[in-house]
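seq as requested:
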Amino acid sequence: MIWLRKARLGFHLLRGICSCALVMPWCGAEGRRRRIRAWSRKLLRLCGIEVEVIGPGGAGGDRPPHGALLVSNHISWLDIYVIHSWQPARFVAKSEIRSWPVIGWLCDQTGTIFIERGRKRDAHRVLHYITDVMLQGDLVCLFPEGTTTDGSRVLPFHANLMQAPLSAGLPVLPVGLRYVDARSENPTTAPAYIDELTLAQCLDAVLRAGGIKAQLVIGEPLSPGSASRREVAEAAREQVVELCGARRDPVGADTNADLEMSASSEGVTA
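struct tokens:
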């Protein structure tokens, strides 16, 4: 029954709030990562979602490089938790999320990096901050399309935040996300958070889908070297297209839209 599953999800969210308020401040970095991973895995189970991680050398996937920029296509609010269930990361999100009731506070507590899109000064601040935290060993995750799709296409990547790994001399790790029916293995659009769909409507579609498999396909790390950020963005997009089996979309934002900062439309809870 959907109402019962929603009640369980509500209780799980409450546990996340309590954990962030009472436990997370006293945990070390590894303890925080363990809690975020465990919380995300349970959230996905409650939503009826199985996660399959596929690495470069076969099933399972390797751990990401120590300090890297992870870039992925963006389909759903669930993408964050799928990635967290594999390897907790610090996501980049629009600053408006910080003011959302409950969710904004949870995002802040779990290390989300907020950006005021369209403000040049804030873009530079975030760029330097991302560089610093990656040099400290953090994994930062970015959805360079700047919006969500139904998963059948990959929009052009915004290139501006690609400057962070170039400045730090750190790798870019492309990741492909796709959602399939757990029984037939055919693609499903149930998790797609697109158009005028509300979060509640998207959640209902997921709960009614009868079982979904989220496939997280890990690519080969890119070492930027002397490449420009636009070249890195395009190389990363090429990999993501291949990894998720989608098509390239020639229509959309220009990859050099420097002051229109790409960011996740959703936040992170733990």
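The first strand starts at residue 49 and ends at 55.
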